[in-house]
Amino acid sequence: MDSLDISPRAVELAEQNAGLNAPDALKHQGMMGDVLQYLKQADTVYDLMVVDPPAFAKSMDKRHNAVQGYKRLNALAIKKIAPGGILFTFSCSQVVDRQLFHDTIVAAAIEAGRQVRILHTLSQPADHPVSIFHPEGAYLKGLVLFVE
Questions:
Q1: pLDDT per position in the chain (148 positions), as tens?
Q2: What is the pairing mode between strands 116-123 and 141-147?
Q3: Torsion of Cα atoms, 54 then 8 then 22 then 143, to 10°
């Protein structure tokens, strides 16, 4: 199992958690770096991948750049999934709504040239309720994808 993060502290914590959860059975490699560069250069193909970037946009004027970032990241991730693999992908940018995120992942699959099926649509848990008067509060969203 590999973990990649730009934060040295996040990599350290991932290493500790892997050791606590499966000290003997799980071989974990924590790496620090830029995920886009890693995915472009890596020869590894994964059966399972979790893509959970920080919020790419915190305001409407940054939304276009965020969508392009989600598309690039997910297209690279889809290319690195083995046939029959699973990709969990997430967005926590409140200005990127559920439909725009979905459409962006569709565009990423087209760019990657892979057949992809949505297994599950994910959202924030009950401890993050959304006011009907502030739909932007539904900022946590995710998709579980089967990549053929």
A1: 899 999 999 999 998 988 888 776 668 889 999 999 999 999 999 999 999 998 888 888 888 888 999 999 999 999 999 999 999 999 998 889 999 999 999 999 999 999 999 999 999 888 989 999 998 888 899 999 999 9
A2: antiparallel
A3: 10
Closest CA to 59 of 143, 136, 142: 136
State the pTM of this model: 0.90
90 is annotated as an active-site residue? no
3-state secondary structure 94-119: CCCCHHHHHHHHHHHHHHHCCCEEEE
Instruction: For each of the domains in the chain, give its residue range(s) and CATH number, in order of start.
Output: 1-33 (no CATH), 44-147 (3.40.50.150)
Catalytic residue among 36, 92, 107, 138: 92
